[in-house]
Input
Amino acid sequence: MSGTILSQTHQNWVEITLNRPEKLNSFTREMHLELRAAIEQARDAGARAILLTGAGRGFCAGQDLGGRDPSKMTSAPDLSQTLEKFYNPLIKLIRSLEFPVICAVNGVAAGAGANIALACDIVLAAKSARFIQSFAKVGLMPDAGGSWLLPNLVGEARAKGLALTATPLSATKAEEWGLIWKAIPDETLMEEARALTESLANGPTIGLGLTKMAIQAAGANTMDEQLDLEAEFQKICGATPDYAEGVTAFLQKRPPVFSGEKP
Output
């Protein structure tokens, strides 16, 4: 790896840092490939949670436009290729992981950078952070899942307002609107994010993963379909060692010790 991504393994979770601080962690092809490799390596090694954050004063400014100067190009770029080869696989990977992905937004999250953060399961943001759907400033529309995530998180009116005006949204307002989980003082962001990630990594991983999948499926399901999905998933949960441990610990009035093991 070239160092555009830093990965630190803890006991049962992994902290992954976007590491191009001089460019506000904006994405290049190389950085995409390294991030996906780091996530897949964490998954394959048995991680039970991932914490994603950024180095320096920003989380991610989206796509690095340094190599896309129109005056130096002979034809218009096919941006669908960038999405299909890089952003879309990344978003799909994050959403498919069967354990929690926490994002600690340590500064500005703009364009695709904002939407990568919002694709994570729990988003914590420093109070100084801002979320900017900056696409309109360069003649684009929201991508990296933004056109789906925004209306599902904050509703059509606010989604259109954010996307059409590219107005920066403070972390505090993002929490108020339900775009993220919490806005946290800058000085305690990483401490709280790491504590949350460790707590989730020590939780009942299969149950947490199925909770994630059920909530993600809810928007496309009818109530009857969701009830059937709950029954299917609860059958799986009920067969896990963690369910037996959770009930035993409850009856014995002690903290549970979850293993994350499959039935």
About this structure: The mean pLDDT is 96. The longest strand covers residues 5-9. The chain has ten helices and ten strands.
